[in-house]
Amino acid sequence: PWKKIMCLLMLKNGVAAGVLGTLAALFGGGFAFLGLLPLVRPAVLGVSIWSQVFGSLTFFPTLLWWRNNERVFLDCCCIDQRS
Protein backbone atom coordinates (compact mmCIF):
# COMPACT_ATOMS: atom_id res chain seq x y z
CA PRO A 1 0.00 0.00 0.00
CA TRP A 2 2.96 2.40 0.38
CA LYS A 3 3.19 2.81 -3.40
CA LYS A 4 -0.44 3.93 -3.55
CA ILE A 5 0.11 6.39 -0.72
CA MET A 6 3.22 7.82 -2.39
CA CYS A 7 1.31 8.09 -5.68
CA LEU A 8 -1.46 10.08 -3.97
CA LEU A 9 1.08 12.29 -2.21
CA MET A 10 2.82 13.07 -5.49
CA LEU A 11 -0.49 13.73 -7.27
CA LYS A 12 -1.87 16.01 -4.57
CA ASN A 13 1.23 17.62 -3.04
CA GLY A 14 3.93 17.13 -5.67
CA VAL A 15 3.59 20.49 -7.38
CA ALA A 16 3.72 22.46 -4.12
CA ALA A 17 6.67 20.39 -2.89
CA GLY A 18 8.50 20.84 -6.20
CA VAL A 19 8.00 24.60 -6.29
CA LEU A 20 8.97 25.16 -2.65
CA GLY A 21 11.92 22.77 -2.91
CA THR A 22 13.21 24.57 -5.99
CA LEU A 23 12.88 27.97 -4.32
CA ALA A 24 14.71 26.70 -1.23
CA ALA A 25 17.46 25.24 -3.44
CA LEU A 26 17.84 28.59 -5.19
CA PHE A 27 18.15 30.34 -1.83
CA GLY A 28 20.75 27.80 -0.65
CA GLY A 29 22.77 28.16 -3.84
CA GLY A 30 22.48 31.93 -3.71
CA PHE A 31 23.65 32.09 -0.10
CA ALA A 32 26.63 29.87 -0.95
CA PHE A 33 27.41 32.00 -4.01
CA LEU A 34 27.35 35.17 -1.92
CA GLY A 35 29.66 33.57 0.64
CA LEU A 36 27.11 33.49 3.43
CA LEU A 37 27.43 29.69 3.67
CA PRO A 38 30.76 27.86 3.59
CA LEU A 39 31.80 25.62 0.72
CA VAL A 40 31.67 22.04 1.94
CA ARG A 41 34.34 20.65 -0.41
CA PRO A 42 36.36 23.59 -1.74
CA ALA A 43 39.05 21.27 -3.18
CA VAL A 44 36.55 19.95 -5.75
CA LEU A 45 36.08 23.02 -7.95
CA GLY A 46 34.38 24.94 -5.15
CA VAL A 47 31.40 22.59 -5.06
CA SER A 48 28.73 23.35 -2.49
CA ILE A 49 25.93 21.01 -1.47
CA TRP A 50 23.75 23.70 0.07
CA SER A 51 21.28 23.68 -2.84
CA GLN A 52 20.67 19.97 -2.39
CA VAL A 53 20.40 20.28 1.38
CA PHE A 54 17.96 23.21 1.29
CA GLY A 55 15.93 21.71 -1.55
CA SER A 56 15.63 18.24 0.00
CA LEU A 57 14.89 19.52 3.48
CA THR A 58 12.04 21.57 2.01
CA PHE A 59 10.71 19.13 -0.61
CA PHE A 60 10.13 16.07 1.58
CA PRO A 61 8.39 17.74 4.55
CA THR A 62 6.23 19.73 2.12
CA LEU A 63 5.34 16.53 0.27
CA LEU A 64 4.30 14.83 3.51
CA TRP A 65 2.63 17.65 5.43
CA TRP A 66 1.20 20.10 2.86
CA ARG A 67 -2.47 20.70 3.63
CA ASN A 68 -4.35 20.20 0.39
CA ASN A 69 -8.04 21.17 0.61
CA GLU A 70 -8.98 18.91 -2.29
CA ARG A 71 -10.75 15.70 -1.29
CA VAL A 72 -9.31 12.35 -2.33
CA PHE A 73 -11.55 9.57 -3.60
CA LEU A 74 -9.62 6.63 -2.16
CA ASP A 75 -11.46 4.05 -4.23
CA CYS A 76 -9.68 5.29 -7.37
CA CYS A 77 -6.45 4.13 -5.80
CA CYS A 78 -7.74 0.74 -4.65
CA ILE A 79 -9.37 -0.63 -7.81
CA ASP A 80 -7.65 -3.69 -9.21
CA GLN A 81 -6.91 -2.87 -12.85
CA ARG A 82 -6.50 -6.52 -13.93
CA SER A 83 -10.12 -7.55 -13.33
How would you describe this protein?
The chain is mainly α and 83 residues long. It is 63% helix and 0% strand. It contains three helices and no strands. The protein has helices spanning 2-33, 50-65, 75-78. Helix 1 packs antiparallel against helix 2 (50-65). 13% of the residues are buried. The model has no long low-confidence stretch (mean pLDDT 82).
Mean pLDDT: 82
Count of DSSP-assigned helices: 3
* Beta-strand content estimate: under 5%
Helix content: 55-70%
Uncertain segments:
none
Give the N-terminus to C-terminus distance in angstroms.
18 Å
Order of helices and strands: HHH
Rg over alpha carbons: 18 Å
Instruction: Tell me the major beta sheet.
Output: none
- Which structural class do you get from the secondary structure elements? mainly alpha
The counted number of beta strands is 0
Shape: elongated
Brief write-up:
It contains 3 helices and no strands.
List the helices and strands and how they pair.
Blueprint: H1 2-33, H2 50-65, H3 75-78
Which terms summarize this structure?
single chain, 83 residues, mainly alpha
